[in-house]
Specification:
Layout (H helix, E strand, L loop, with lengths): L5 E4 L7 H13 L4 E3 L7 E5 L6 E6 L8 H12 E6 L2 H10 L7 E3 L23 E4 L7 H15 L4 E4 L12 E3 L5 H10 L2 E4 L7 H8 L4 E4 L11 E4 L2 H12 L10 H20 L5 E7 L6 H9 L5 E8 L17 E5 L5 H11 L5 E5 L8 H11 L9
Parallel strand pairs: 1-2, 1-3, 3-4, 4-5, 5-6, 7-8, 7-10, 8-9, 10-11, 11-12, 13-14, 13-16, 14-15
Length: about 400
C-alpha cells in the first residue's frame, strides 16, 4: 500500500476561531494524510490564517482594513499561495475588493468546527434569575474595538441582563451588570457558552466560528447585520443601531432554538477534494475520468464496486458519496478508503443529488456514474473514452 501523502496544515497557536479551525481540520485529516509540522517536510502545504512560506493553498478567515498591521500580511499570503480559499462569500468579496491583482481566484468553503463534550456550567457570579448574555473576544484590536463600544452601550441600556466578556475596554466605565471572565480555556468557554441565554456577535465578523458553536448548542445569537454572520443565518436577531440591539436582545432571550449541527463533515470533504486535486496536479496525472460511486447501506457490495473502479486500465479519480449509510458500508473498504475521495452526507438525499455532489468535486473532463452495488470490468472506462474521443459530438456514451 502506498504511503500517505504528507500534508502540512498550519498548527494551532493561541486561542480563537482560526486556531480552533486549524486544530479541527488537522485532526479530521489524520488517517487520510500524514500530518507534518513543517512545510519543508510536506508534499501539500496548506496555510490557514496567514502564510509565511510558499503554499499550495491559503485559507483566509478575514480581511483587515488598510492600515491595520495584518493587512500587509494577508497581501503577502495571497502572493505566496497557488490557490486561495475564503471561509465565506463575504470574505471572498472583501478579498477581491481589497486586493486586485492578476490571477486572484477565490474559492469559498464555508468554515466549521467540531464540538467535544460540553456541560452547561452556570457561573457562580451570575445573579439569581438574571439572563446571561456572552460576548467573548480575547483582544480589542481593530474591528473588535468598535464591537467593544457596542457591547458596553448595550450593557448600560439593559441593566436587568447579566453580561459577560473576556476583556473590558479600558476607555469605558464598567457597569455593575458586566462580569469580566478573563481568558478561559476552550472547555471552560464552551461550558459557559452552553449556559448562556444569548451569544453576542457585536462586530464585523467574516464567518465567526463562535456563532457556529452557539448554533450547535442551541444558543440564539444577536449579531451585527453588515457582516458575514448573516450567511450562517443563526437563530436570533440582526442589528445595526443600539435601539435595534436592545430589541433584538430581548427577542433572543425569548428563544431557545433547537441545536443546529455544524456541517463540519461537508467542510472536511471539500478540503479533501481540493487536496486531491492539488496532488493530481503535482503528479501531472490528471485523471482520464472521474468515477462517481453512490452508496446507501450497501455493505455487501460496496467493496467490490470501489475495487473495480480502482482497477481501471486508465488513471481514474474515484469519488465515493456515502449517502447517510447506517450499516457500516464504509468500514468494508479497509485501506481502499485512502485511494478515493470520500464525501459523506449526514442524512440520505437520494442517488441523483448525491451523484450531483460528486460531480461538483470531480476534476476530470469525463464523468462515469456507478451505483455502489454494481462493478465494472478493468477496461470499462478505457472503452467508453475511446468512443467519446473518436466522436466529440457525442455527449453521452453507454455500454
Amino acid at each position: 500500500m502506498a504511503e500517505l501523502v504528507k500534508l502540512y496544515i498550519t498548527p494551532p497557536q493561541g486561542v480563537g476561531g482560526v486556531p480552533e479551525f486549524n486544530r479541527a481540520l488537522r485532526e479530521a485529516m489524520i488517517g487520510y494524510y500524514e500530518i507534518v509540522n513543517s512545510p519543508t517536510e510536506a508534499e501539500i502545504v496548506h496555510c490557514s490564517g496567514l502564510a509565511s512560506v510558499p503554499c499550495d493553498l491559503f485559507t483566509s478567515h478575514g480581511v483587515p482594513s488598510p492600515g491595520e498591521p495584518s493587512y500587509d500580511a494577508v497581501h503577502r499570503s495571497l502572493l505566496l499561495a497557488e490557490r486561495v480559499v475564503a471561509v465565506s462569500n463575504y470574505t471572498a468579496q472583501k478579498l477581491r475588493s481589497a486586493f486586485v491583482f492578476p490571477g486572484l481566484d477565490v474559492q469559498v468553503i464555508h468554515g466549521s468546527v467540531t464540538l467535544h463534550q460540553v456541560t452547561p456550567a452556570e457561573p457562580k457570579w451570575l445573579k439569581d434569575g438574571a439572563p446571561l448574555a456572552l460576548w467573548y473576544k480575547t483582544n480589542l484590536v481593530g474591528v473588535n474595538a468598535d464591537a467593544a463600544d457596542r457591547f458596553a452601550d448595550l450593557a448600560v441600556a439593559c441593566p436587568d441582563v447579566q453580561f459577560a466578556c473576556a476583556v473590558w475596554p479600558s476607555w469605558r466605565k464598567k457597569p455593575q451588570n458586566v462580569h469580566v471572565t478573563g481568558w478561559l480555556d476552550r472547555q471552560e468557554y464552551l461550558n459557559l457558552l452552553a449556559a448562556s441565554n444569548v451569544y453576542l456577535c457585536m462586530g464585523v465578523e467574516d464567518y465567526p466560528l463562535s456563532v457556529i458553536e452557539a448554533m450547535a448548542l442551541g444558543v440564539p445569537t444577536l449579531f451585527y447585520a453588515d457582516s458575514g454572520t448573516s450567511e450562517l443565518n443563526p437563530p436570533g436577531a440582526p442589528f445595526k443601531t443600539l435601539e435595534e440591539a436592545v430589541r433584538g436582545l430581548w427577542q433572543c432571550l425569548s428563544l431557545r432554538p433547537k441545536p443546529v449541527r455544524p456541517k463540519f463533515r461537508h467542510m472536511v470533504s471539500a478540503y479533501q477534494a481540493l487536496y486531491h486535486q492539488i496532488w493530481l496536479e503535482k503528479q501531472k496525472q490528471k485523471p482520464a475520468a472521474s468515477i462517481i460511486i453512490t452508496c446507501h447501506n450497501l455493505k455487501d457490495y460496496i467493496a467490490r464496486s470501489v475495487q473495480s473502479a480502482l482497477n481501471q486500465t486508465v488513471p481514474c479519480e474515484v469519488i465515493l458519496i456515502d449517502d447517510g449509510s447506517t450499516d457500516g458500508s464504509i468500514q468494508q473498504l479497509g485501506r481502499m478508503i485512502e485511494d478515493v475521495v470520500l464525501i459523506r452526507n449526514d442524512k440520505p438525499v437520494g442517488p441523483a443529488r448525491a451523484r450531483n455532489l460528486g460531480v461538483e468535486h470531480a476534476s476530470a473532463d469525463f464523468i462515469v456514474p456507478l451505483d455502489g452495488d454494481d462493478w465494472i470490468e478493468p477496461d470499462f472506462v478505457e472503452q467508453l473514452l475511446k468512443v467519446a474521443r473518436e466522436s466529440p459530438s457525442i455527449g453521452v456514451v453507454a455500454p
